[in-house]
Amino acid sequence: MSDQATQTMTSPVLSATDRCDRCGAQAYVQVELAGGTHLLFCGHHWGAHEAALTPQAALIINELHKLNETPTVV
Fold first, then answer.
1. Which of 3, 23, 57, 65 is most enclosed, with most CB atoms within 10 A?
2. Whether the Cβ atoms of residue 27 and residue 14 lie closer than 8 Å to each other
């Protein structure tokens, strides 16, 4: 497998600094539209716009599972 294919298959990870484009809360979903536009959503706003955006999306990175994770104490 080439490096290009590996990079394409690896999803970027959203960080705490990524903010929802609608309200400024932490973003857990990133949507890339076919034209290359990237949109960031918190869980609430993704729920409000998911049905409309999913058919138009070239890529969706959904990390809503992070909302239910318990941090590990070291």
1. 57
2. yes
For position 9, what pLDDT does the model report?
A: 46
Helix residue ranges, H only, the chain: 3-9, 43-53
Query: Which residues lie across from 38 on neighbouring strands?
Result: 32
The pairing of beta strand 29-33 with beta strand 57-62: antiparallel
pLDDT digits (tens, 9 = 90+) for 9-57: 455 689 999 999 999 999 999 999 999 999 999 999 999 999 999 999 9
Q: What is the pLDDT of residue 74?
A: 80
Domain ranges of the chain: 3-68
